[in-house]
Amino acid sequence: MPGANIIGTGSSVPKRILSNKDLETIMNTSDEWITRRTGIKERRISTKGRNENTADLATGASLKALEMAGLSPESLDMVVVGTVTPDRQFPSTACMVQAALGADNATAFDVSAGCSGFLYALSTVDNAIQCGNCKTALVIGVERLSSIINWHDRGTAVLLGDGAGAVVVAANKKKKGVLSTHLRSDGKLWDLLYSSDGNTYLPTALKTIRLKPYLLKMKGNPLFKRAIECMATITKEALEHNSLKSEDIRLVVPHQANIRIIWGLAKSLGIPMERVYTNIHKYGNTSSATIPIALDEANREGLLVKGDHVLLVSFGAGLTWGASILKWTT
Ligand code: COA
Asked: What number does CATH give the domain 1-330?
């Protein structure tokens, strides 16, 4: 069976920086509280009219990943996007990216799995490659969470940001870069993190959409506890599946929701923070985009070396969580 290998990474974030100090001027919060409780110092927020919509950010990240891979968009068989903040309910963000890139030979679709969207998308592509249905694919995680932030809720508004990350994945009969991906969901806990309203009852929804936009709602405390527990358990499953130990992991690239969650995860796995990549201070929580942005930054900083084992681990709305172990092959 062919293996899936990441051969290019890219990321793209909006130009506008919104710092904790800026937030102090618009809500009852402080740089001190946000830094101490979350590790976030600033985040990027897209600006209307600057080509910073969800599909724009995803396209920007994809172009960089394709450039690194040395491939043209026409060579792509699949474009899979993880997002919960598409520009439109349909068509999919993936189809809009396909058009922007000119990836005319690809099958394109979105995956909705909260902050685990990127890992769900990566797993889908990995399976397609192993089945022989795909040779080259783009896997993207992208969000414009600013489109659903409730600026009157300081408990969530300070956490979120916008951005995109992408990887080019290629089949190779001799190399297996994605060793395995392990995914879980628990829909019983959907109401810990969700967007308000919905379109179940269409006439009402049409009325409320105009009055009340879709806004992110979250119960932070119970999520915090589950995040560490779920990510640690799924990582242990992934390590065991590959007969690896924590010390075999060269770099952990975790979902960036809260630095204290990342510390808790590292402690639970017995992995020192020097081997955990964090950039939450710059971008906050960009949901599906945190892992591919961090992976791209780590790659461009030269932290990913051929032969290294890399752990990607996520947790988010759904609830969904997952872990993927890579053997870096480029
Ligand atoms: N600025 C200042 N004070 C704030 C604040 C803000 N932005 N947000 C909340 N507070 C206050 C609360 O009102 C509360 O005050 P009180 O004690 O007077 O009632 C106090 O800070 C503590 O609030 P609490 O919600 O218990 O804080 P916390 O330490 O749990 O941190 C989160 C809140 C959201 C940062 C944290 O729960 C978290 O990160 N949760 C998980 C997020 C997550 O995993 N999301 C899903 C994956 S994407």
From this structure: 3.40.47.10
